[in-house]
Amino acid sequence: MTCVFCDEKNPDFTAGRLDFHYWRECPMLMECAACHTIVEVAEYRKHLLKECTAPNRPNPKVAAPVGMCPLCGGEVGRSARDMKRHLLLGGGCPKATRKPRAAAVAGLR
């Protein structure tokens, strides 16, 4: 099976193992600090603006704008591929707690 977010192909992925990968490992996903929902890193600002229901959520106006990484604040480019490259290549985003594995980065080089 293959992760639809980071494209990691892993023969050990079962439906349950893939769910665990999404929940704890996939470098393209993150846990919202306010509501604890797992969201795409690239969609975090949108999540804060439209989806997060936590009363203590960060102000979306100070969240990283389009083209910037919400984790490190670095400029990454506006496309989904740009964000994917930032999160998966060269050890991934320096502020990400979920680091890429070789199986996920093979197709981006």
TrEMBL record:
A Pfam family: CEP104_ZnF
Cited InterPro entries: CEP104-like, CEP104_Znf
Top-rank lineage group of the source organism: Eukaryota
GO cellular component: cilium
Domain Centrosomal protein CEP104 Zn finger, chain residue ranges per copy: 2-55
PANTHER family: CENTROSOMAL PROTEIN OF 104 KDA, GLYCINE-, GLUTAMATE-, THIENYLCYCLOHEXYLPIPERIDINE-BINDING PROTEIN
Listed name of the protein: Centrosomal protein CEP104 Zn finger domain-containing protein
Species assigned in the record: Allomyces macrogynus (strain ATCC 38327) (Allomyces javanicus var. macrogynus)
Lineage per the UniProt record: Eukaryota, Fungi, Fungi incertae sedis, Blastocladiomycota, Blastocladiomycetes
